[in-house]
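Consider this pair:
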Amino acid sequence: MPVLTMICGLPGAGKTTLAKKLEKERGSLRLCADEWIVALYGDDIARDRNKLYAVRDVVEALQFDLTEKMLSRGLDVILENGFWSRKERLMLRDRMVRLGAKTELIFLDVPRDILWSRLESRNRNLPPATFPVAEHELEEWTGMFEPPSADENAKRITG
């Protein structure tokens, strides 16, 4: 039975690091929206957050469709989108379970002060396919983030 692994967490939590590790260990297909956005639109898209958010929605929708196709062919997939809302997590899980796939939710639970420390460091020397994050954005996003509840059966990794 193919497995969809969803990695949940805020920027700076370590989603890409974990996804790359799991990709190597499991031989899964890893999909990262930021990598696709940079490949399609370039690094400069981050200057216009509204445009960045709009193209992210399109890229994520394409990746969800691709995920569905790969799972239906028996290939495991890792998505590192962050999955900030319960609604998004449940919608995707239900969609993939209807295909006969198993889902795994991993929640990277990192305190806000550690997230900001990591982001400050990352902002000084951005890795490829990574966008800068301002502290006020992290504050806003922290308020929007819905941690997985017990009924979502997330594997919690604290950091």
